[in-house]
Amino acid sequence: MTVAARDGIAALTLDAVAAEADVSKGGLLYHFPTKNALIAAVAADVVTRFAIGIEERVAADNRPAALAHAYVDSTFDDDASHPELLHALLAHPGIGPEQIGTALELIDVWEQRLVAAGLDAGTAALVRHACDGWWMTERLGAPRSTTAHAATVLRARLHRLIEEATS
User: Fold this and answer.
1) How many CA atoms lie within 13 A of 158 on its CB side?
2) What is the C-alpha to C-alpha distance for residues 165 and 116, in angstroms, rounded to an integer?
3) Which of 20, 39, 50, 165 is the 20 to 30 Å CA partner of 130?
4) How many Å from the N-terminal Cα to the C-terminal Cα in the chain?
């Protein structure tokens, strides 16, 4: 992930990753036989880091719907959602469902977890879709001047919605 985050997906080559990890290219090929396998691992790592960030926020929050609040905050937090890296991943011509399979699988898992955390199914779907839509809009390059205020408003409204749904 270091090479991709620092230099972009185009620089994510087996040679560059082997050098960064201080392993032989052969050793790297044992774990990642193709560049697509390497890209899939980067995508999975980003999703895993996002999930860990959510769990860390949940551990520090004593509200009834801490998971839902953490999901919203992590989505809007660039440090948690890795927008530049994920934008590069999504823009890469070799990216398809097989490379981002982990992320696609987790979409349903997050919605199920939001319901298990106390949201009704409709509110959980609304929160997840609003977060996903916001995240994708940002990845597609919406101008920051128009999105900064919208992000603040949307984030606050989602938190209010969660509070109302769990009180």
Assistant:
1) 29
2) 13
3) 39
4) 40
pLDDT tens-digit profile of 121-142? 999 999 999 998 887 777 666 6
Question: What amino acid occupies position 45?
Answer: D
User: What is the pLDDT, as a whole number, of residue 94?
Assistant: 64
Asked which of 8-12, 20-24, 84-88 is least confident by mean pLDDT, the reply is 84-88
CA triplet 37, 38, 40: central angle to 5 degrees? 65
Q: Smallest Cα–Cα separation from 128: which of 146, 109, 141, 147?
A: 109
Query: What pTM did the predictor assign?
Result: 0.77
pLDDT at 38: 79
CA distances from 164 to 42, 50, 64, 123, 151 (A): 37, 26, 11, 10, 20
Residue appearing with tokens 């949940």: 58
Longest CA span, the chain: 56
Beta strands in the chain (DSSP E): none
Question: Smallest Cα–Cα separation from 42: which of 93, 83, 5?
Answer: 5
